Amino acid sequence: FRPVSVLVSAWGQSTLPQLSAALANGRLAEFDRTLGRALIATALGSVAIGFVLWFAWGPIARYVFAGKYPDGFLLLWPWAAASGASVLRYVGSTGLMAAREFKFLAKAQTVCGVLAAAATAGFILWHGYAAAMWGIALGNGACFAWEMLRLQRVRRHQPPAAARP
After folding, report:
1. What's the rounded Cα separation, in Å, for the pair 147 and 90?
2. How far apart are alpha carbons 34 and 36 in whole angstroms?
3. Contact present, 160 and 26 (Cβ < 8 Å)
4. What is the pLDDT of residues 125-154, one digit of tens each?
5. Quick one: angle between helices 102-127 and 76-98, nearest 10?
6. pTM for the whole thing?
């Protein structure tokens, strides 16, 4: 799933100044459009990589892992969910950085880290190590949802360009 995270990271680095300028100048439609497209592309890219790995799992298990991890397939979907939620969260975090919401991001990172750790431990105790990635996916997904809610609130308090003096 690394190709998607590399592309999302590159997007974030190059787009952050434009997102910040769009918010600062009240160009909310541009901000929304840029972030929305990134969320859609990130979700589609994550799903595409997940399906490619699912269809190619036989040769991967045979030639890359040399049969060492016979139950590795059990980790594919939880890993896909954790990775997908993580890169979506990165897109949301980029929007919040553009809005200068650094204190919220620090708090969210701490709370979501604790949530992910607790959920991971719970999933391991409940269903063994193969379920560990579901805990990380849950933590990342909850953090993504929380960041999107915060972004909506921040976004609502931004005056549009026409209302600026």
Report:
1. 10
2. 6
3. yes
4. 998 877 888 999 999 999 999 999 999 999
5. 170
6. 0.86
